[in-house]
Specification:
heterodimer, A: 295 residues, mainly alpha, MetI-like fold, two-stranded antiparallel sheet, 13 helices, 2 strands, globular, B: 272 residues
Amino acid sequence: MTLRQKENRSGWLFVAPAALHLFVFALVPILFSIGLSLYRWKLYRPEKSFVGVDNYTYSLRDPAFLNSLWNSLKYALMSVPSGIIVALAIAVMLNQKMRLSPFFRTVYYLPAISSGVAISMIWIYMYLPESGFINTVLSKLHIGSIDFLKDANWALPAIAFMSIWTGLGPRVVLFLAGLVGVPQTLYEAAALDGAVGWRAFRSITLPMLIPTTLFVVVTSTISAIQVFTPVYMMTKGGPEDATEVVGYHIYNEAWTSFNTSLASAKSFILFVVIALVALVQFRMTQKQLEGHSTF
Amino acid sequence: MLGRIFSAIMLWILAIFLMAPFVWMLFISLHERHEPIPKIQDTIPTQWHFDNYSWVLFNPTLPVSRFFWNSVFVTTSVVILQLLFTSMAAYAFARLSFRGSKTLFAIFLGSMMFAGSVMQIPVYLMIKGLGWLDTYWALIVPGISSSFSVFLLRQFMLSIPKELDEAAKLDGASDFQVYSRVILPLSKASLATAGAFTFFAVWTDFFGPLIYTSSTEMRTLEVGLSVFKNSYGESQWPLQMTAVVIVMVPLIVVFLFSQRFFIKGVLMGANK
């Protein structure tokens, strides 16, 4: 056996377990799921019939599914831009090229690494009418009690606010790291041209932070569209379907109604939506980057 | 100077904003267990009921200690096996030239795009077909490799000087010896990073255990906790919060030890 053949063989031996796992738990399921979505089949039932793209056309006309997609987009719009702007503002105000101490890092990351179930249980209390934390504060300000999680107008914003809280610390840490990478000489050069304060922020800080921001925007949006645990724990999709997000809708389709093949089709549609959203965001930021690179 | 004081104040305000709900959780967990939810000014308990913890852990109707053991066993197994398999794959991608390696790596990267929800149903059917439903196999085997870990470890291994492998090979070391004696010891930091990510993901995984297990004995802490909420309803807040603290403590401890590596990994992801 030549040296090349030997390396070839050991290369494949080393990747074999991970590659086998990828094949069994990702590639086969993806293909199988495509196949499944072309049938009409309920879990635990023997009858199965080929229906082509019927599940897809049905889904795209299913008002409950469309409503859930819309709720997820609304949720992403409520939680992502505001969450990122607040984090960016805090990071810029902290400015000082600082390294956070382990204490602050741990404190800032704690909500984000916490279990979703635990966080949801704590926030159920935060939102309780009368005795909950937020309503106690509101009553001090002479604002009447709001039953956030049982009010169709408030439930989705309430969950979105919780996710701003969860994501705040890590985002601040990411932006602080991004700020460390901005060369001080840029600010000095800009100051010579009279650009300080807001103008320096617009023409230097913001464009230099675009790669970090792009990463935060795309990953946050993707996970916001798929939000599941807080809805499952806090509202079960209610009141009046106001928090029926797409992740929860597909969960119910698959595991409560057992419409297995329909749920597969819906999760593929969701996958396409997510890919499109990510692509659009990527394109938009790319343009922004090009527009600024000539400053 | 003024700027520094301002920064320090900001840091603390943010810390308090993020910590307040956890501090509340801790205090409530020590209230008398039948007490209704106290007013904010009564948050600090007048009597400290540490016995809530033993009550929750060893309560016969809901075996929280069993949930805890399940979580420990599943998480440890997944972390160890995943580090083993993904570091092997990362070593092959970073160090060995073999036919098809570029294509295979591209497939690994591409698979990260697919959200879990697309795979759920087929993976469930497969686990069911294997007779693994409601067993540890169902909770461990789907997690023993991850494209993200392969990617993270490979990036790091690429930065280790190649001369080290060549020197070892001149001394007659096999590929496996280079992997185990040269590359792995030098990759401790990135293994810690990948391990920390995996730990948090598995410990707080809700969906997997929710659909792959059905009996109370097989629930992990995360799913057990949600059952806990349902069986105690809106009442018994102190006990609910006690359970929440029990889920959180291992997360906090592991984070304290791994935060340096963990944040490095997050930043690496952001700057790729």
